[in-house]
Amino acid sequence: MLRIPFCQHAHFYQPPREDPFTGVIPQELGAEPYHNFNEKITAECYRPNAEMGNFERISFNIGPTLALWMEKFAPETLDMIVSADKTRANAVAQVYNHTILPLASAADKEIQIHWGITDFSRRFGRWPQGMWLAETAADIPTLDALAKAGIAYTVLAPWQVAGSAPRNSSGLDTTKPYVVDLPENRSITVFFFDPNFSVALHRTSHLTAKQIAQEIFPMRLDNAWFSPRNGQTLFAAGDGEYFGHHIPGRDALLRDLTLTEGPAAGYDPISLNEWLDRVKPQDAIEIKNFTAWSCEHGLDRWSRDCECARDAFLPAINGNWKGPLRMAMNRLAERIDAVYATQSFRWLRNTHEARLASIGPLRGWLDWDQFFIEQGSDDLLRSPESLRAVIQEKLRRLFQALYYRQLMFTSCGFFFEDLSRIEPVNNIRYAAMAMKSTIGAAPELPSFADAFATDLAECYSVRTGQTGAELFLREWDRAEQLLA
Ligand SMILES: [Zn+2]
Questions:
Q1: How far, in Å, is the centroid of ligand 1 from the Cα of 256?
Q2: Are 224 and 334 found together in one domain?
Q3: Single pTM value for the model
Q4: Long-range CB pairs of 121-126, under 8 A, 24+ apart, other chains included
Q5: Do residues 271 and 398 both lie within one domain?
Q6: How many separate domains does the chain show?
Q7: In angstroms, what is the span from residue 297 Cα to ligand 1's centroid?
Q8: How far is the CA of 298 from the centre of ligand 1 (A)?
Q9: 233 CA to middle of ligand 1, Å?
Q10: In terms of C-beta density within 10 A (0-12 exposed, 13-18 middle, 19 or more buried), how is residue 398 classed?
C-alpha cells in the first residue's frame, strides 16, 4: 500500500497573563476549579497531550510567553514537550510575544524575530528552521525579515495568496510548499494549510479518529494532482488548545489519529521539517500583503473596527478604540526609543545590536556584567568602577523599558471587542511599566504619562463608558501604589 504523509501543525500559545505591576497572575474568572487559564489549559491540553506523546507526532510551536510560565509552573510538561522535538525536529519557533509584525516597525520586526529565535535555540538546543507568525500576519517586509534572520519557512493560510496560483479542484494546492521571492534574491518557503482538513482535525467533535482517518482523509486527496511520491502531504494547522481544552477528549483523538487509526488507514504523521527534507519547493507564489488567518479584512482586526471582533449579542460594542490605542502605543514607543538612543549611544558599541542581545540578561540567561563586557563601549569599560556601576544600572533600566515596550504590542490586546477587557488593559499596564522604567533610568527627563493619556483620550470603552485616558490614569495610580 502506498503510504501517504500528513502533517498537523499546532500553534500553542498564551499571552503573558501576569499583572505587569506584580508579576502575579490574578485569579481568573471562568478558570475554576483552577486559579487561572494557564493552569486550566495545562491540565486539559498541554499535559495530557505531552503524556500521550502527541507532540512527537505533530509539528508544533510553543509561544515564549507560555513556555516562560511553564518553566515555573509546569516544568515536567515543558520538559516532555522539549524532548518531543528530538523525535523528528517537530518544533517551530514563534515571534517573541505575538506581535502583529506587518503593523510593527522594521526594528520591532527584527527584535521579535531575533528574540523568538534566541528563546527557541536556548530551549530546544538547535536553530529553528521555521517560525510561526502571530495570527499568520504577513507582508513582504515581514517575510523578508524572517529570511534575513535565517528562517527557512513559515505557515500561511491559502487566502493570503495573491494573483493566480496553481489550483486543484478545491482551491490552492496545499499539498506542497511554495517559494515567495523576496528582495535581493532572498526567498522563503511557505506551507499553506488546507482549511477543510484543518477544521476536520480540530473542530469536528462528532467524528471519531477512525472516521476521520477512513472518511475525511481520502476526501482531502485530489487524485488528479496528488502523488505522495513527489513528497505531497496533507497539511492541517490550527490552535493546539482545541486538543483537549476547547474540545474535551480531542487530545485522545489526536493520539489515536496519529498513532493508530491514521497509520492503519495508510496515513503517516510527519513534521514540517521532515516534509521540507523530502521536497524542494519549486513553484513561486505571490502573497497578499497585510493579511492574516483570523481576519477577513486585511489586518483591521488589530488596527480598527471590523466584524471579526464584533459581539453579535452586544451590537453597540465596536473596535473604534483600536486605531487610537495603536497610535498612542506607536508614539510612546518612539519616545522611549529616542530616550534609549540618546541615553545609551555613548556607552554601547552598537545600540541596535545591544537591544537584540538584551533578551539574554533580561531573561536571566546571561549575567548583566557579562552583557556589558560584550556590548559596552570603550567609554563604559574604561570608566571608574563606581561610575560604571551607575551607568550600567541606568542602561539596565532602559533595557527593561524596551522589554515592556515590546510586550505592550502583544496582539491579544487588539484582538477582542472592547477596550475594557483584560487583554488591552494589560497592554496599557505594560506601557505604564515601560514608562516607569524609563523614568527610573532618566528621572531628569519629563514623564511621558501626560502625553500618553492625551493620546488615549481619543478612545473609549463602550462597555464601561471609560476613556482610554481614564483607564490608563487609574492603572498609573495603581502602579504608583504597588511600586512605591
Ligand atoms: Zn476582520
A1: 35
A2: no
A3: 0.96
A4: 122/365, 123/67, 123/82, 124/82, 124/85, 124/91, 126/85, 126/89
A5: no
A6: 2
A7: 4
A8: 7
A9: 30
A10: buried
